[in-house]
């Protein structure tokens, strides 16, 4: 696929933030479950249009951090500023309305539904015909359905999953399920896309495909991406900036090259004699 | 004319969203509708109306209501019988308070009462799910049946404690009560069931149906794609209870003619649940197939052996019926959890390939 030749489609919702501007600012967030401190006093920012990686050893608090960002957990301390609005707690479906979409570490698709329906479900927030119109079907409800179907087909084309449109996702292999999940997140037209280990358990070829999709989403659609990933090669190649967590604390933040040579990061990954 | 998809191309998304992707399906449905609207009414005997046609349609509708809640939105309910009762009592009160009200309007209105009660008893679903929710709906079942018994206002302080259907006419034609003709009642039931079924098909294939299925398949993920779980679950309870309530009103007013509170007790809930399971959870067609099986089986057992000269007592018929239905339910749960509707799907898939399976 020729990336350069493809027209730039304005998929990301207009979020009122100039490219390179501050899209999200996480300020001094702390989260604990009883006595267990999952995340301690973490601050970092995400700029519009970048790919931001969050890395760290197992149990470092990366997924907890994503859960705070999309409103699934409420932090005890600290706030999150997203598109200029400051907040601490919110319902996940409000986060979606503000433009935050995510994928999961363990695939969380609607298993009984087809690929098409899964991605269409991602557009539920953007559809609003009420029950009465739905009952009549012909008319506004059908028009809305078709309008969104066209958008969904663009995503299906983009992710090269045309052949599994009608297949129930429960029957798909893992790699394709991951792709469908990315499609569902894209269908929400997010301004910030959170990817929780998009390449976990994939073989090299699938990883290459997924990397390509992530870069294309970022470049063609201008979607800002925050991703968690364990494959260091992928992280260093894809991301513009990296934040490193260990035991719930931030130990480094910067460009991939700077992070790679950071003393604390090397210690955290390789272990150090205390 | 072979059952084929060959040559049927879709050139627009509207065509792709059509109800019958295969043209032959539409013809088949047309034939069934001709039978239902024309051939059955003019050939059926009084017995066939009362024992087969009308109950099949009413039970199908009740199962459809339950299926929306359990099969589409994934919220298990054991309170169907009680919600049918709410519809029936609401209809009774409506026609006693407003004697001028058109009976068909009364039936459609009575659904709103059961919808409201259904939403109230659906509130626990926001906190609990699965078997625990089933127990909570069981509370609705026991509470409402108790209420039907104790609250004398509901049955107009009748000494018998039962509701007795009076004769009510629509445009001079008796629809309710002993003076109504079976064929009239059949047409009323058929039209109401057809309208509600079409509406249900449209809801379940659009945005709201997708939201329900998303909640059923994984509620956490549904919330994280922006679905408001509270709205999704309560709307499922409302729509489901509305349909169940209308079925309950039909059940008493166009079929049985009278009802005591005990009619709406838990065996009715189970009967409807069995129809939904045997027919297929998460399918509209399944409700009709399940209802045909459950209603027709005892009729067949009662008439076929007698016609063949086998002497079977009526008690025996009942026992056989229970045994066969029990065995069928176990079989479906093991062999084909998606029920009769799934069998039809398999037949269709095979038929499209037939006779060249490769």
Give a quick precis of the structure.
The complex is a heterodimer of chains A (274) and B (358). Chain A is an alpha/beta fold and 274 residues long. Chain A has helices spanning 62-69, 92-98, 115-122, 131-136, 140-159, 174-187, 204-221, 232-238, 256-260, 263-270; strands at residues 22-33, 36-47, 51-55, 77-82, 85-87, 100-103, 192-196, 224-228, 241-246, 249-254.
Describe the structure.
The complex is a heterodimer of chains A (274) and B (358). Chain A has a 6-stranded mixed beta sheet, sandwiched between helices. In chain A, strands 2-1-4-5 form a 4-stranded antiparallel beta sheet, with helices on one face. Helix content of chain A is 37%, strand content 23%. Chain A is α/β, with parallel strands linked by helices and 274 residues long. Chain A has 10 helices and 10 strands. Mean pLDDT of chain A is 83; it is low at 1-13. Chain A has a domain at 106-189. Chain A has helices spanning 62-69, 92-98, 115-122, 131-136, 140-159, 174-187, 204-221, 232-238, 256-260, 263-270; strands at 22-33, 36-47, 51-55, 77-82, 85-87, 100-103, 192-196, 224-228, 241-246, 249-254. By secondary structure, chain B is mostly helical. Chain B has a single domain (45-353), classed as ABC transporter involved in vitamin B12 uptake, BtuC. Chain B has a two-stranded antiparallel sheet. A two-stranded antiparallel sheet of chain B has the order 2-3. In chain B, helix 3 runs antiparallel to helix 10 and helix 7 runs antiparallel to helix 10.
Structural class, from secondary structure content of chain A? Answer: alpha/beta
Reported for the largest beta sheet of chain B, the result is: 2 strands, antiparallel
Strand tally of chain A: 10
- Secondary-structure-based class of chain B equals mainly alpha
- Output the number of helix runs of chain A: 10
List the helices and strands and how they pair.
The complex is a heterodimer of chains A (274) and B (358).
Chain A: E1 22-33, E2 36-47, E3 51-55, H1 62-69, E4 77-82, E5 85-87, H2 92-98, E6 100-103, H3 115-122, H4 131-136, H5 140-159, H6 174-187, E7 192-196, H7 204-221, E8 224-228, H8 232-238, E9 241-246, E10 249-254, H9 256-260, H10 263-270
Parallel strand pairs in A: 3-8, 3-9, 6-7, 7-8
Antiparallel strand pairs in A: 1-2, 1-4, 4-5, 9-10
Chain B: H1 13-16, H2 23-43, H3 46-72, H4 80-97, H5 103-122, H6 131-150, E1 163-164, E2 168-170, E3 173-176, H7 182-205, H8 207-217, H9 219-224, H10 229-256, E4 258-259, H11 266-279, H12 285-307, H13 314-335, H14 339-353
Antiparallel strand pairs in B: 1-4, 2-3
Helix pairs in contact in B: 2-7, 3-7, 3-10, 3-11, 3-12, 4-5, 4-6, 4-10, 5-10, 7-8, 7-10, 8-10, 11-12, 11-14, 12-13, 12-14
